[in-house]
Specification:
There is one protein chain. The protein is built from seven helices and 49 strands. It is mainly beta and 758 residues long. It folds into five domains: 110 residues, Immunoglobulin-like, CATH 2.60.40.10; 295 residues, Purple Acid Phosphatase, chain A, domain 2 (4-Layer Sandwich); 181 residues; 54 residues, Seminal Fluid Protein  PDC-109 (Domain B) (Ribbon), CATH 2.10.10; 87 residues, Macroglobulin (MG2) domain (Immunoglobulin-like, Sandwich). The two termini are 52 Å apart.
C-alpha cells in the first residue's frame, strides 16, 4: 500500500509541471499595455497563459485572465509558442503561469512599462555567441539589474544551429530573477544569424524584415532596431526616415544594429553603407545614442557629426552640441578583439566582456559600461528602485569618466576641461576608527558611524584617499562620499563630515591622529536616510562636499596627485543614542565595497591643465602609431618612430625637459609582440605560434603553466625573421585550461594567452 501511495504521489507531482521551457518575453507594441510571452512547448497540448495582477502562485484557476497562443512556429527544433497580451495596465506587475495538458509551469511575473515619462533603465549589448561563461555572467546580471528592456544587437549564437539556439535559450533563463521576474528582449539580427527568420521566429518581433521601432513612456524614448544584414539603402532607410519624421515630438531617439559604421578593431571592415545612409539621418533627426556590436571590443565616442570637410577622421567630427554618441561593440561572450583602431573622436576604448547600462529621463541619458566577469559577486537592485548601484557592480572607469551623459539640448562635457574623478580607499590603513581613548583600529571589517558597542565608544572615523587627480584651482562642481551599507538601520542619525586642512594629508599613524587634525571650517551635517545591507546608492551617499574640496584645491601647496583625508564624527542624537548610527563596509570588508570619493570639476583658461586629462592609459596589444599619446605609471608619453617620448608628469603642464631618470617607459613596439596568433586553440598536441614584429636579434622564452601555477613547459626561441612561424609540442596530456606566457630576454612578460587542451 505504501508503494502504491508513493507511486501515486510521483504521478501527481509530474502532472503539476507543464511541458514547456526556454521562456522569453518580447515586445511588439506599446510596452506599457502589451507584451509577448514566448516559450518552447516540448510536449503536451492546449497551452494557455493564465495571468493577472494578483500573485496566485501556480493556482491557475484563480487568475482572472487567460490567453491562448497567438502564434506557434516550429523552428530550430523548438515549438516556439507566443501569447500576445494586450490591454494591460501601465507600470503594473502581472503574474502568470502556462497551463497545458500535462500540468502547470512555475509562476513568473513581469512589470509593464510606465505610460508617462518617468525614468527608464535599459541594458544594451550583443555578440554572445558560444562562450558560455561570460554569456551566462551577463545574463545573470540582467536578473540583478532589472531593466525595463534588454536591447540585444545580434549574434546570439555562433553557427545558428538548432542545438546552439536551444543552449542559448537555456542560458537565457538566467535573466529570470530569483523571484520569477522576467524582462523583455528587443532583438536585432547579426551576421551569425543566417536569416531574418532566426529573429522573427524565435522572438516574434513585429517585422519579418527585422527592423522596427518601439516607443517607451508617453513620448520619452523611441528605440530603433535596424538590420545591417539586409540591404541598408532602399526600403529600410526609407522606412527609418519616414518614422523619424513622424516622431519629431519624441524626447529621445536611440538606435541599435549589429555592424558598426566605424569599428574600433582594425581587421573589421568599415560600415560605409551604414555611414552613407544613416549617419546624417541620425544627426539631422536627433538620434542621440547608437549601440553597435560585431567587433567584440569596447568603445564610447564623443558626440559626432558626419563631415567630409578638413579635419574629419573617417567621416566624423566632434560636435558637442548636436552630435550622436556611438557605443559598443559587442562582448556579451564572443571572442574578444583588441581595440586597435581608435579615432580622434574616440572617448575611450578597451577590451573586456561587457554591456551598456543606460538610464533615460526627460532631462538626460546616462550610459555606463558594465564589466560582467564578477557577476556572481554582484548584489541585486530592488524591484522598487532599479536605478541604485548594487554592491560590487564593476563599472568601467576609464580616463574620461565612468558615465557618458547626454543632456537634453547639449552633451555633458562640451568643454574638454571638464573632468571627474572617482577614487576608492586603497588599503586598510586609510579607513580607520579612533576610539574614545585615542587609539586607532585599522583592520575592522566595517566602519561604525559612529557608536561601536565593542568598545562602548562614540568614535571618530578617518577616510584617506590617495592620488587625487584634481587640478590646482579647479572649480569643484560636486563632491560626495559614497559608502556601501554593511548593516540595515532606519534609526535617525546625525553625522558631521570635515576635511583635513592639509595640502597633502599624511597617513593615519598614532593616537588621536584622526580627531587631532585641523579641518576646514566648511563642515557638512549629514542626516542619512535608512540603510539596507549591501546597498550602495543615493541613500549611502553623503551631501555635497564641494565647498571643503574647493578649499583644498585652492591651497597654495595643492598639486594634482596629492592625498586628502575626511573626518566623520557623530553629532546630536548620534552622540547620545547607541542606535543612532550607520554601519558601512570598510576596505577589509571587501575592497570593492570600500568608501569612494566622487568629484566633478571644471577648469578655465587661467588654470594650468593636467596634461594627462583625457589620455587613455597604455594597453598591451594596441598597435600604437607615431603621434599617439598614452599615460603610463604617472607620466604622459608620445609615440615616436623608434620608441616613446616623455612629455611630462601627470598633474602638471607639459615639461619635455624632464629628467628621465627613474621613469618607467611604456614597452616599445620592438619589444612587444603586438599581434600574434596561437592555433589551433583548443589544441590537441602541436601548437603553432605566429610571431610578427619581434626582434630577430633577441631571444624569447615561451612558458606554459597549469591553472594552479605549476610550470608545464618552457622553451627559448630565437626568431629567424619578423614573420616567423614556430611549432611547439608541449607534451601536455591532461585536458584543461593552461596559460601561455612569452617573456623577453630580460624576463619581462610581453604577452599572455589562455590555452585550452582538448
Amino acid at each position: 500500500m505504501k508503494k502504491l501511495y508513493f507511486l501515486f504521489a510521483i504521478l501527481i507531482g509530474l502532472q503539476t509541471q507543464a511541458s514547456n521551457g526556454k521562456y522569453r518575453l518580447t515586445l511588439r507594441g506599446n510596452p506599457a499595455t502589451s507584451i509577448v510571452i514566448g516559450w518552447d512547448q516540448t510536449s503536451g497540448s492546449n497551452p494557455v497563459v493564465y495571468y493577472g495582477t494578483t500573485d496566485y502562485g501556480t493556482n491557475y484557476r484563480n487568475y482572472p485572465n487567460s490567453k491562448a497562443p497567438s502564434r506557434t512556429v516550429s523552428y530550430k527544433s523548438m515549438n516556439n509558442t507566443f501569447a500576445r497580451l494586450t490591454g494591460l495596465t501601465p507600470n503594473t506587475a502581472y503574474y502568470f503561469v502556462i497551463r497545458d495538458s500535462q500540468g502547470t509551469s512555475s509562476r513568473f511575473w513581469f512589470k509593464t512599462a510606465p505610460s508617462d515619462n518617468r525614468r527608464l533603465s535599459f541594458i544594451a549589448g550583443g555578440d554572445s555567441r558560444n562562450n558560455r561563461t561570460p554569456r551566462r555572467n551577463a545574463n545573470s546580471l540582467v536578473a540583478k539589474l532589472k531593466p525595463h528592456a534588454v536591447l540585444f544587437g545580434g549574434d546570439m549564437t555562433n553557427g545558428d544551429s538548432s542545438s546552439e539556439w536551444r543552449t542559448w535559450f537555456n542560458d537565457w533563463q538566467l535573466t529570470i530573477a530569483s523571484d520569477g521576474r522576467m524582462f523583455p528582449i528587443i532583438a536585432a539580427r547579426g551576421n551569425h544569424e543566417d536569416s531574418n527568420n532566426s529573429i522573427y521566429n524565435l522572438f516574434d518581433v513585429p517585422s519579418s524584415s527585422v527592423y522596427y521601432a518601439i516607443t517607451f513612456g508617453r513620448n520619452l524614448v523611441r528605440t530603433y532596431t535596424l538590420n545591417t544584414e539586409i540591404s541598408i539603402s532602399g526600403s529600410q532607410t526609407t522606412w527609418l526616415r519616414n518614422d523619424l519624421n513622424a516622431n519629431t515630438n519624441t524626447v529621445w531617439k536611440m538606435a541599435q544594429y549589429h555592424k558598426p559604421m566605424r569599428p574600433h578593431v582594425s581587421s573589421k571592415r568599415e560600415g560605409n553603407s551604414q555611414y552613407s545612409n544613416w549617419a546624417r539621418l541620425f544627426y539631422d533627426k536627433g538620434v542621440k545614442l547608437v549601440v553597435e556590436c560585431d567587433a567584440h571590443t569596447v568603445k564610447t565616442t564623443w558626440p559626432l557629426r558626419p563631415s567630409t570637410s578638413s579635419g574629419n577622421d573617417e567621416g566624423f567630427k566632434r560636435d558637442n552640441e548636436n552630435g550622436t554618441v556611438y557605443v559598443g561593440e559587442g562582448c556579451w561572450g564572443a571572442p574578444l578583439r583588441s581595440n586597435n583602431d581608435n579615432k580622434s573622436w574616440t572617448r575611450n576604448s578597451s577590451r573586456f566582456n561587457q554591456f551598456k547600462w543606460i538610464f533615460v529621463s526627460e532631462s538626460k541619458i546616462e550610459a555606463r559600461t558594465i564589466k560582467v566577469d564578477n557577476a556572481s559577486q554582484v548584489g541585486s537592485v530592488s524591484n522598487n528602485n532599479v536605478f541604485a548601484i548594487p554592491a560590487n557592480l564593476d563599472i568601467w572607469r576609464p580616463s574620461n569618466g565612468s558615465v557618458v551623459t547626454i543632456n537634453k539640448g547639449t552633451i555633458v562635457d562640451p568643454n574638454p576641461d571638464n573632468g571627474s574623478i572617482e577614487v576608492a580607499i586603497s588599503n586598510g590603513n586609510d579607513d580607520v576608527e579612533e576610539e574614545k581613548d585615542g587609539s586607532l583600529y585599522t583592520n575592522s571589517s566595517d566602519l561604525e558611524l559612529v557608536y561601536d558597542s565593542s568598545n562602548t565608544s562614540y568614535q571618530v572615523v578617518g577616510l584617506r584617499f590617495q592620488s587625487l587627480g584634481l587640478p590646482k584651482n579647479a572649480t569643484i562642481t560636486s563632491a560626495y562620499l559614497q559608502f556601501t551599507a554593511d548593516e540595515s538601520n532606519s534609526s535617525n542619525a546625525e553625522l558631521e563630515i570635515a576635511l583635513h586642512n592639509s595640502s597633502n594629508s599624511p597617513s593615519f599613524s598614532s593616537s588621536n591622529n584622526v580627531s587631532g587634525r585641523t579641518t576646514f571650517s566648511s563642515k557638512v551635517t549629514w542626516r542619512p536616510q535608512s540603510w539596507t545591507s549591501n546597498q550602495s546608492g543615493s541613500r549611502q551617499r553623503s551631501p555635497n562636499l564641494k565647498t571643503m574640496v574647493q578649499s583644498l584645491v585652492n591651497k597654495s601647496g595643492w598639486t594634482s596627485g596629492n592625498n586628502a583625508s575626511f573626518i566623520v564624527r557623530g553629532k546630536g542624537v548620534s552622540l547620545t543614542s547607541t542606535s543612532a548610527k550607520r554601519v558601512a563596509d570598510s576596505y577589509e570588508g571587501g575592497a570593492s565595497k570600500a568608501a569612494r570619493l566622487l568629484v566633478n570639476y571644471t577648469t578655465d583658461g587661467n588654470t594650468p591643465p593636467d596634461i594627462c586629462a583625457g589620455i587613455a592609459p597604455w594597453q598591451s596589444g594596441v598597435n600604437y602609431v607615431e603621434g599617439d599619446k598614452v599615460t603610463y605609471q604617472g607620466n604622459l608619453f608620445e609615440r615616436i618612430p623608434s620608441d616613446w617620448k616623455l612629455l611630462g608628469a601627470c598633474g602638471t603642464t607639459r615639461n619635455t625637459g624632464k629628467n628621465t631618470s627613474g621613469v618607467f617607459f611604456p614597452p616599445s613596439l620592438k619589444e612587444t609582440i603586438t599581434t600574434f596568433r596561437i592555433h589551433p586553440n583548443p589544441f590537441d598536441s602541436i601548437l603553432s605560434i605566429d610571431l610578427p614584429l619581434v626582434r630577430t636579434d633577441k631571444k624569447y622564452t615561451i612558458i606554459i603553466y597549469d591553472v594552479s601555477g605549476s610550470l608545464i613547459f618552457k622553451e627559448s626561441i630565437l626568431p629567424i625573421s619578423q614573420n616567423d612561424h614556430i611549432k611547439l609540442n608541449p607534451n601536455i596530456s591532461q585536458s584543461g585550461i593552461y596559460m601561455l606566457k612569452i617573456n623577453d630576454e630580460n624576463g619581462k612578460t610581453i604577452k599572455t594567452k589562455r590555452l585550452l587542451k582538448r
